[in-house]
C-alpha cells in the first residue's frame, strides 16, 4: 500500500512516522514537530499528472508513485507538495519539516524501466498506441498479434516493459493519462515538406478504407477541439505507405522544412491510416484517428498542450 511505502521511506530517512488509523494519511514527526500528511497514490507521475493533482486544490499531499518524472518532481515541489518516488527518492515539505534524501528502493514497487526505454521501437509504439486506443482493455498476445503485426512474444515483452515503468496496471490495461504522455514523448514522425498541396480526390478514398489521413488543426476542428484555424496553415497529411513520400515529392515538389504548403508523414503505427467508418472528414480528407491528432498536438509544448488541456471528450485519454 502507498501509506506503508511512505512510512517505510520516512523511517529510513530518520523521520518518526506511522499510518493514521482509518485514513489514507501518515503521521510524522521530526525534531519535535509533528504533522499529518494525506497520501496520494499514483502509478506513474508525469508533469502533466502532477499539474492535474495540484490544480485540484486542497491540502498539499504526499504523492507516492512507482516513478515520478523530473518534470513531475519539479511541479510537485514548486507547489509545496511532498513526494516519494518508490525507486528511491523522498521529498517532504510540511510546516517545520524539510526532507529531501535518497531512500532504499521500495521492494514492493515494480522495478522501473529506464525513462528513455519505456516505449522503444515499432513494437513499443504499436502496443502503447493500441492501449491508449482501448482504455480499460488489455492486449492478448495471441488474439491481437495479427492486428498489430507483431509476434506474441514481442507483445508480451513490450507490455512487461510498460508495466515495469508503471504505465500498465496489473490487469494489462493502460495507466492513463500517463501512458498517453509517455507515448507523446516517443511520437516523432518525420515530416517531408512539399511546395504544392495534394488534392483530396487524388489520394483520399474514403474514411472506411486505408489511405491518406489529415491531421493538424483541420482534423482537430473536425473532432470538436477548442482550436481556431489560422489562414495559410500547412496541410498536414499521413500517407498510406512509405513509397507515397517520394511519389509526393516528385508530384508536388520539395520544400525546405517548415516552409512548404503541405507536409507528408509515414505513420509511426499502421493504425493511423487504417480504415475506420467513424472518422470525420476534414476539408475533403478523412481525418486521422482522434488519438493520432491528439498526439500530434502534444508535440507543440505551448499551443498544442494548451488545446489538449481544454479539450474534454469522453475518450480524452490525455486528461
Q: How many helical stretches?
A: 12
- Main beta sheet, described? 7 strands, mixed
Order of helices and strands: HEEEHEHEEEHHHHEHEHEHEEEHH
Instruction: Record the strand order, biggest sheet.
Output: 1-2-3-4-5-6-7
The gyration radius over C-alpha positions equals 23 Å
Descriptive tags:
single chain, 319 residues, alpha+beta, 12 helices, 13 strands, 33% helix, 20% strand
Write structural notes for this entry.
By secondary structure, the chain is an alpha+beta fold. The chain has three domains: 2-102, no CATH class; 115-186; 191-310, no CATH class. Helices cover 33% and strands 20% of the residues. Helix 4 crosses helix 6 (152-164) and helix 11 packs across helix 12. Residues 111-116 have low confidence and may be disordered.
Amino acid at each position: 500500500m502507498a501509506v506503508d511505502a511512505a512510512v517505510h521511506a520516512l523511517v529510513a530517512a530518520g523521520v518518526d512516522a506511522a499510518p493514521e488509523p482509518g485514513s489514507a494519511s501518515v503521521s510524522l514527526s521530526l525534531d519535535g514537530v509533528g504533522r499529518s500528511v494525506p497520501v496520494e497514490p499514483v502509478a506513474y507521475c508525469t508533469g502533466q499528472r502532477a499539474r492535474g493533482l495540484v490544480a485540484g486544490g486542497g491540502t498539499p499531499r504526499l504523492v507516492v508513485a512507482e516513478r515520478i518524472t523530473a518534470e513531475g518532481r519539479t511541479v510537485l515541489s514548486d507547489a509545496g507538495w511532498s513526494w516519494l518516488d518508490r525507486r528511491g527518492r523522498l521529498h517532504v515539505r510540511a510546516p517545520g519539516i524539510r526532507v529531501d534524501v535518497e531512500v532504499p528502493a521500495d521492494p514492493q514497487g515494480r522495478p522501473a524501466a529506464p525513462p528513455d526505454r519505456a516505449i522503444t521501437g515499432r513494437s513499443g509504439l504499436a502496443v502503447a498506441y493500441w492501449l491508449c486506443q482501448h482504455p480499460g482493455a488489455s492486449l492478448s498476445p495471441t488474439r491481437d498479434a495479427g492486428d498489430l503485426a507483431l509476434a506474441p512474444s514481442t507483445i508480451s515483452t513490450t507490455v512487461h516493459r510498460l508495466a515495469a515503468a508503471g504505465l500498465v496496471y496489473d490487469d494489462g490495461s493502460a495507466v492513463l493519462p500517463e501512458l498517453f504522455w509517455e507515448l507523446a514523448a516517443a511520437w516523432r514522425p518525420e515530416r517531408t515538406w512539399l511546395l504544392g498541396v495534394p488534392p483530396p480526390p487524388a489520394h483520399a478514398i474514403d474514411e472506411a478504407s486505408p489511405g491518406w489521413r489529415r491531421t493538424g488543426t483541420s482534423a482537430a476542428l473536425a473532432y470538436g477541439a477548442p482550436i481556431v484555424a489560422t489562414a495559410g496553415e500547412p496541410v498536414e497529411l499521413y500517407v498510406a505507405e512509405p513509397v507515397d513520400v517520394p511519389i509526393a515529392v516528385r508530384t508536388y515538389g520539395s520544400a525546405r522544412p517548415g516552409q512548404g504548403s503541405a507536409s507528408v508523414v509515414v505513420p509511426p503505427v499502421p493504425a493511423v491510416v487504417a480504415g475506420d467508418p467513424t472518422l470525420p472528414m476534414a476539408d475533403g480528407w478523412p481525418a486521422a484517428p482522434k488519438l493520432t491528432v491528439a498526439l500530434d498536438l502534444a508535440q507543440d509544448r505551448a499551443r498544442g498542450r494548451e488545446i489538449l488541456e481544454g479539450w474534454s471528450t469522453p475518450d480524452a485519454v490525455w486528461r
